[in-house]
Write a structure and sequence with these properties.
mainly alpha, 3 helices, 69% helix, extended
């Protein structure tokens, strides 16, 4: 089934409303290394980064208690 322009626009509108974007800048070649590592963990690059952020934030909270 083809992904229509209307579906693309609807998805873009939903994403804009439901999600914030964060741009991460890494050295050339580092993106692929991180992506490959994430895949080895069974995760997408985005999920890997979100999990890493969540982990660090939880660690910080634990240290403060």
């Amino acid at each position: 089934m083809k992904y229509s322009d209307a579906q693309k626009e609807a998805t873009a509108r939903y994403n804009k409303k439901a999600y914030d974007r964060i741009n991460v800048i890494v050295k050339k070649g580092q993106r692929q290394i991180i992506k490959d590592f994430a895949a080895s963990q069974g995760k997408s690059l985005n999920r890997f980064i979100c999990d890493a952020i969540d982990y660090q934030m939880k660690q910080s909270v634990t240290k403060d208690e």
